[in-house]
Amino acid sequence: MTEQEAIKAHLTTNYVSQNGMTFFSGLCGGLKDARKMSGRNMDTGEKFLDNTKCSNDENGPCFKGHLGSWLGTMGYMALLDQIGKCYKPKNQSTITGNASAIKKCLKYFTTLSNDEINIIYALRNAFFHDYSIYNKYNGNNNFFLLGHHATEPIVKAPTENWDGDYNNIKPESQTWANLEAIGDLVEKIYKDLQKLAATNQIDIELVGGHEELIKRYIFVTGIKVK
């Protein structure tokens, strides 16, 4: 398998059945799960704005996610980590040092500022470490206000810094995070990756190259997954 074939397999292997087995990539599988929890079409990422449609196919049980789902957002942010470990655009210099994969992804594939990236990173830590809305990172204390909105900014810093004392929490010290917009961001990055891959404009960052990409992120199961 060539490098371009491996990239295509990682970006597009979405529960392919063959000889009684089902193949899928961690990226496509993660997208499917994040979309389901977030009230989106599991195959396209389209948002179900009226909350009356189910997030899976018509043959399975009805599950209605919602755009402000914490679990859905966790799924999307895990994919930012995966993408940041795997890829960079060919036209960008490699980010060196000990930057986290999620930060690399956001720097490579978005125009977000460093402050915005740090807020998303802090929210990821709050969610993943103990499923909470509080995080202390890089000298900043974050007390998050979470919501989902089609036009509000993805994140917004508080007007007053929170001192980390839980007795001193007030609205002015809340850090805004728009969970719907985070999902939208990851969906855009995924589409951009596909476009870059189609024109051979992305490099694999993994030490083991395309062989590691396949071995690490392509999975097989004997169970048909819907």
Give a nutshell description of this structure.
The chain has 226 residues and is an alpha+beta fold. 42% of the residues lie in helices and 16% in strands.
Describe the protein.
This protein has helices spanning 3-12, 26-37, 70-86, 101-109, 114-130, 179-198, 209-217, and strands at residues 16-18, 21-25, 87-89, 134-137, 140-147, 155-156, 174-178, 202-204, 218-221. It contains seven helices and nine strands, in the order H-E-E-H-H-E-H-H-E-E-E-E-H-E-H-E. A four-stranded mixed beta sheet has the order 4-5-7-6. The protein has one domain. The protein is of the alpha+beta class and 226 residues long. The relative contact order is 0.19.
Integer-rounded radius of gyration? 18 Å
Structural class: alpha+beta
* Percentage of residues assigned to helices: 40-55%
> Major sheet: size, sense and barrel closure?
4 strands, mixed
Question: β content, as a range?
Answer: 15-25%
Query: What's the pLDDT, averaged over the residues?
Result: 91
Tally of alpha and pi helices: 7
What's the arrangement of secondary structure elements?
Layout (H helix, E strand, L loop, with lengths): L2 H10 L3 E3 L2 E5 H12 L32 H17 E3 L11 H9 L4 H17 L3 E4 L2 E8 L7 E2 L17 E5 H20 L3 E3 L4 H9 E4 L5
Parallel strand pairs: 5-7
Antiparallel strand pairs: 1-2, 2-9, 3-8, 4-5, 6-7
Keywords:
226 residues, alpha+beta, four-stranded mixed beta sheet, three-stranded antiparallel beta sheet, 9 strands, 16% strand, globular
